[in-house]
Design goal:
about 35% helix; 3 domains; five-stranded parallel sheet; about 15% strand; 18 helices; 15 strands; FAD/NAD(P)-binding domain; alpha/beta; Fumarate Reductase Iron-sulfur Protein, Chain B, domain 2
C-alpha cells in the first residue's frame, strides 16, 4: 500500500466536466482527464482493504456488488500512486480487454462497493482505470501483438458488440483464426451505434478495432447471419460458432394510435443519429431529427437519458421522459446498506442538460402512455397519459394530454431477435434468451456457443466483456481439450 493515509489526506477529485450549455453545442466527449500528478493522488486514496469489495463481483440482495470482471483494483490504484503506469496497465489488461470502454460507460459497480464510500467519497476507480489505459495508448504501449503461431482452428463470432469483441480477442490471442460477422456497416455493435458519441467517441472504438484487425481478427460487415448467410454455412466452414447478437428485440408500446408517424424505438433513433454524424457530421439529413419538436421518451433508464441529451443537441422544442416507477430516494435507505448497489436517484448528463436548457428535470414519474393521438396527416401530434399508483395501476381522473411530435420508446428489451436462434435451432429460456447449462455457454447445438445479452438478457458492457471472456475459455477447451 503506497499511501496508508491517502484516503484521509486527499479529497475525491473527478475529471472536470464541461458545463451543460457548453457541451450541448457538440457531440464529443466532455470530460477532459486529470493530469498525471492529480491522478496519482487519486490512486493514493485507495486503502487497499483487507476485503476489497470493489473487485468482488458478489451478488448481494439480488444485485452485484463490485466488478464482475474482478479487476485488480487495489493493485493498479497503488501502482498509479507510485507512478508506475506501465505496470498498472499490465495488471489492468489482465482482467479487462477494453478498459477504454468500461472507463467511459460503466456505471462503476466498483465504486459503489469501495470501502471509502462507506463513510465518505469512494475512490475514483473508474477514472483511474481510464487514466491508465489512455496513458498506455498515448505512450504507444498498446502495439498490435499477433499470436506467434496458429492452431489451425477457425471460429466465427456473430456480433461485434462488447461480448463478441472480447470473445474474439481472447480466442485470437489463443492462436485460433477468428472471423467476426456484423450486420451493420461498421463493426462495434452497441459500442458503435447504441451509445452516443458524447459518451464514447467512435474514434476510440475504431482504434481498438484497428488493433484487433492488425492482430489477425477478420471483420466482415454487412453480413446478416440467419438471412444473408445461413447457419449451416457457418457450421460447415468453422470449427466453432459463438453467437453474441445482443438483446435487440425492443419492448413495444401497445396502445391505440401506435401506427402514427413519428414513433421510433430509442436505439434506432440513436443509431441513425450516430451513423449520420460519422458519415457527414449530420449534414446529410439522413437521421430522424428532433429539431423544433416536442419529444416524449418512454423509459427512465440510461437509453432514455441518452435520447434526452441527443434531442437537446438536435434542437428540440421540449423533451419529457416518462417513468412508470416512483422516484428513487436521493440517499441510501436503511434496507439498502453498503456495499449493496445503491438504489438511489441519479441525475445523468442528459437530465442535467435539460435542466440547464428548459429549467426542469425531464423525468415524470409514475406515469404511462395510454393513447397516441395523430393529426390529420397521420403524424403524431399528442399523447394521452395517466398516473399510476404504487401497484402500477392507473389512477382514475389523472388523464392528461401532452403535445408530442416525436415519441421514442426506451422501455427495455425482450431478448435477441428470434431469427438467429431459429436459424441455428437453439433452445430458449422463458425470457427468450439462448439457453445453456447454468454457468456455461454451450447451446443445445454442438459447436455453437453464445454470450452477452443474447445469453443473459439486457445488461451492462462490463458484463458483456465478462461473458465474452468466459465463453472464449469454454470454446478454447472445446477446440483444444484445455484452455490457458
Amino acid at each position: 500500500m503506497g499511501k496508508p493515509t491517502g484516503f484521509m489526506e486527499y479529497q475525491r477529485q473527478g475529471n472536470p466536466t464541461q458545463s451543460p450549455l457548453e457541451r450541448i453545442r457538440h457531440y464529443n466527449e466532455f470530460h477532459p482527464r486529470l493530469g498525471r500528478e492529480d491522478r496519482r493522488r487519486q490512486g493514493a486514496r485507495c486503502m487497499e482493504c483487507g476485503v476489497p469489495f470493489c473487485q468482488s463481483g458478489a451478488v448481494l440482495s439480488g444485485m452485484v456488488s463490485g466488478c464482475p470482471l474482478h479487476n485488480l483494483v487495489p493493485e493498479w490504484n497503488d501502482l498509479v500512486y507510485t507512478g508506475n503506469f506501465g505496470h498498472a496497465l499490465e495488471r489492468l489488461l489482465k482482467t479487462n480487454n477494453f478498459p477504454e470502454f468500461t472507463g467511459r460507460v460503466c456505471p462503476a459497480l466498483c465504486e459503489a462497493a469501495c470501502t471509502c464510500g462507506l463513510h465518505g467519497d469512494p475512490v475514483t476507480v473508474k477514472e483511474n482505470e481510464l487514466g491508465i489505459i489512455e496513458d498506455g495508448w498515448e505512450r504507444g504501449l498498446l502495439q498490435p501483438r499477433p499470436p506467434k503461431s496458429r492452431t489451425g482452428k477457425r471460429v466465427a463470432v456473430v456480433g461485434s458488440g462488447p461480448s463478441g469483441l472480447a470473445c474474439a480477442d481472447q480466442l485470437n490471442h489463443r492462436g485460433h483464426s477468428v472471423t467476426v460477422f456484423e450486420r451493420e456497416d461498421r463493426p462495434g455493435g452497441l459500442l458503435m451505434y447504441g451509445i452516443p458519441n458524447m459518451k464514447l467517441e467512435k474514434s476510440i472504438v475504431q482504434r481498438r478495432l484497428d488493433k484487433m484487425a492488425a492482430e489477425g481478427v477478420e471483420f466482415r460487415t454487412g453480413v446478416d447471419v440467419g438471412r444473408t448467410v445461413t447457419a449451416q454455412e457457418l457450421r460447415e466452414q468453422y470449427d466453432a460458432v459463438v453467437l453474441c447478437c445482443g438483446a435487440a428485440n425492443p419492448r413495444d408500446l401497445a396502445v391505440p394510435g401506435r401506427e402514427a408517424g413519428g414513433v421510433m424505438f430509442a436505439v434506432d433513433f440513436l443509431k441513425e443519429t450516430t451513423r449520420s454524424l460519422l458519415n457527414s457530421n449530420l449534414t446529410d439529413g439522413a437521421y430522424p431529427s428532433a429539431r423544433g419538436k416536442h419529444v416524449v421518451i418512454v423509459g427512465g433508464g440510461d437509453t432514455g437519458n441518452d435520447c434526452v441529451g441527443t434531442c437537446i443537441r438536435h434542437g428540440c422544442a421540449s423533451v419529457v421522459q416518462l417513468e412508470m416507477m416512483p422516484k428513487a430516494p436521493d440517499v441510501r435507505t436503511e434496507n439498502n446498506p453498503w456495499p449493496e448497489w445503491p438504489r438511489v436517484c441519479k441525475t445523468d448528463y442528459g437530465q442535467e442538460e435539460c435542466i440547464a436548457v428548459f429549467g426542469h428535470d425531464p423525468r415524470i414519474y409514475q406515469t404511462t402512455v395510454t393513447e397516441l393521438i395523430p393529426g390529420e396527416d397521420g403524424s403524431l401530434k399528442a399523447i394521452r397519459t395517466v398516473k399510476l399508483d404504487g401497484k402500477l395501476k392507473p389512477v382514475e381522473g389523472t388523464e392528461q394530454v401532452m403535445d408530442c411530435e416525436l415519441l421514442l420508446i426506451a422501455a427495455g428489451f425482450l431478448g435477441p431477435q428470434s431469427y438467429v436462434p431459429e436459424a441455428f435451432g437453439l433452445e430458449l429460456t422463458p425470457r427468450s434468451c439462448v439457453k445453456t447449462e447454468a454457468g456455461g455457454y454451450a447451446t443445445n447445438v454442438p459447436g455453437v456457443f453464445t454470450a452477452g445479452d443474447m445469453h443473459r438478457g439486457q445488461s451492462l458492457v462490463v458484463w458483456a466483456i465478462q461473458e465474452g471472456r468466459s465463453a472464449a475459455s469454454e470454446v478454447d477447451t472445446f477446440l483444444m481439450g484445455y484452455t490457458g
